[in-house]
Amino acid sequence: MKITFIGAGRWAMTLALVLHRKGNEIRMWEFSSNRLEKILATRKISDLPDKIKIPENIIISSDLEKTLESAEVIFLAVPSQSLREVLIKISPFRFIVDQNIISKRRPILVNAIKGLENNTNKRMSEIIKEIFPNSRIVVLAGPGIPFEIAAGKPASLVAASHDMIAAVEIQKILSFDNLRVYTHADVVGVELGGALKNVMAIAGGICDGLKLGDNAKAALLTRGLAEMIRLGIALNSNPLTFAGLSGMGDLIVTAYSPYSRNRICGESLGKGVDLEKTTKSLTGVAEGIATSISAKGLASKMRLELPIVDEIYSILYKNSDMTKSIKRLMERPLKMESNYEANK
């Protein structure tokens, strides 16, 4: 198949390498000229294992039209706050996206981004649908640390869509010897899980930086998952989705992996490094920083109580004292963990 990647970061490159090994024709678009120059000179991505070299027949360029030409599948893998701008750049080539020249069918647009758009609080697939209303959209999520997948270690992801034929197609083209992909119909839940876990992973990293211990981190992430579910239910997703790969699975790996930018961000903050220095030290974007704004906005709009989201937002944007945030969380009114018994 002819497969295009919009974005050539570590996640896009990892997926591209899997698909290249399966014999697909891969083209990638990179918007940063400095980054493109470095990739072409070294044929490497710094965040992937050093032994990984990008094959010469994976074409990486800044020519958007040539990258999109004849694409049967288009992976979108840019920072969440850049997606709308990138889609607007693509829109002049709508004839390519809306109908493939060779097969005479619409390419599948795969959202491989885990975030929410600030100001609108929209999920990535909602933005894609807004700009390309006739597109076939699949959301790709789950515990996928690029370094490990690129190194050949086993992993599982989930492909969610309202178009199950498209979801199954992505499942088939991505599944390989070390990568197993499941399908899902709950697009909202899968997408929210992938976005919100980044906020909770920052919280988990703060636990590490403050050396609060395993009990505190386990409790924090469990209650964080409860907040993810609470928001998901309010937005009409299935609560069981958050017990799956895009919820609990991605939360676990993002909050514990030494390769997770969101966890690293939180740990740095917990050690007393300010946000500006922390973000500059990262090799890419920690999506949870921006997502905390949208998560707080959605909670306010839906009139939901999301105390961990509130505290992470306050730490990131109001310079809140982390010890006071912990105190506020610990001294909240006592309650039942679940209201299941009360509702029986």
CATH homologous superfamily title of the largest domain: NAD(P)-binding Rossmann-like Domain
- The 3D shape can be described as globular
Q: Regarding quaternary structure, how should these chains be classified? A: single chain
Number of strands: 8
Number of domains: 2
- Binned, the helix content reads 40-55%
Which regions are unreliable across 5 or more consecutive residues at pLDDT < 50? Answer: none
Q: What is the CATH architecture term of the largest domain?
A: 3-Layer(aba) Sandwich
Give the helices and strands as they follow along the chain. EHEHEHEHHEHEHEHEHHHHHHHHH
Overall pLDDT, averaged?
Answer: 94
Description:
The protein has 344 residues and is α/β, with parallel strands linked by helices. The chain has two domains: 2-185, NAD(P)-binding Rossmann-like Domain (Rossmann fold); 195-335, N-(1-d-carboxylethyl)-l-norvaline Dehydrogenase, domain 2 (Orthogonal Bundle). Helices cover 52% and strands 11% of the residues. It has 17 helices and eight strands. It has helices at residues 10-21, 33-42, 64-68, 83-90, 94-98, 124-131, 146-150, 164-174, 187-210, 214-234, 245-256, 261-270, 275-281, 287-302, 307-317, 322-330, 340-343; strands spanning 2-6, 25-29, 59-61, 73-76, 108-111, 136-141, 155-160, 179-184. Strands 3-2-1-4-5-6-7-8 form an eight-stranded mixed beta sheet, sandwiched between helices. Helix 9 runs antiparallel to helix 10 (214-234). The longest helix is centred in the middle third of the chain and has 24 residues, at 187-210. The mean pLDDT is 94.
